[in-house]
Amino acid sequence: xxxxxxxxxxxxxxxxxPLAYAPKVSQTPSLxxxxxxxxxxxxxxxxxxxxxxxxxxxxxxxSEEDARTTLCHCSSCRRAFGTNYGLTTxxxxxxxxxxxxxxxxxxxxxxxxxxxxxxxxxxxxxxxxAAADKFRYVMWGTFxxxxxxxxxxxxxxxxxxxxxxxxxxxxxxQKIKE
Length: 178
Ligand SMILES: [Zn+2]
Ligand SMILES: [Zn+2]
What we know:
This protein has helices at 2-12, 22-27, 33-36, 75-81, and strands at 44-49, 56-61, 68-72, 86-92, 96-100, 104-107, 112-116, 123-128, 135-139, 151-155, 171-172. It is an alpha+beta fold. The strands form two sheets. The protein has an eight-stranded mixed beta sheet. It is globular and about 40 Å long. Residues 50-52, 54-55, 117, 119-120, 122 line the site of one zinc ion.
């Protein structure tokens, strides 16, 4: 507990420095504004649904840090999303529950399981077999208020099309890990 509150105090320190220090402050490793926000450790409740609303879910998180939204440029995400990248929010399984409807499951060759609505066909979440009892990757666009969990990073940037501009203030991996 003590160490955590100490870290917060240190991170907010540059804001109180005299203006003369400003250039130096801006060269410190960039810390996205969300970490300085007073709401960063607040509980987050997100609701979401499929296109036809047969499937509805709630995500309840202890803090903003429990949600990790990322873009993924891998070929599997491209195919599943039908766009040039996938956009999902990783949340702990215990924070995810369906309020309405039963999803249909599809497991693809690479072990990724996707849960979708058997009426409108919209995917709601996905996960790898190995993490099935730990996490859900929720399709960002199915949240009612997706802006509560903006992107923190990008994966498989090696596949990113050259015409796509960079997203500011996010980590980038050429593959899944490096
Ligand atoms: Zn539906
Ligand atoms: Zn992917």
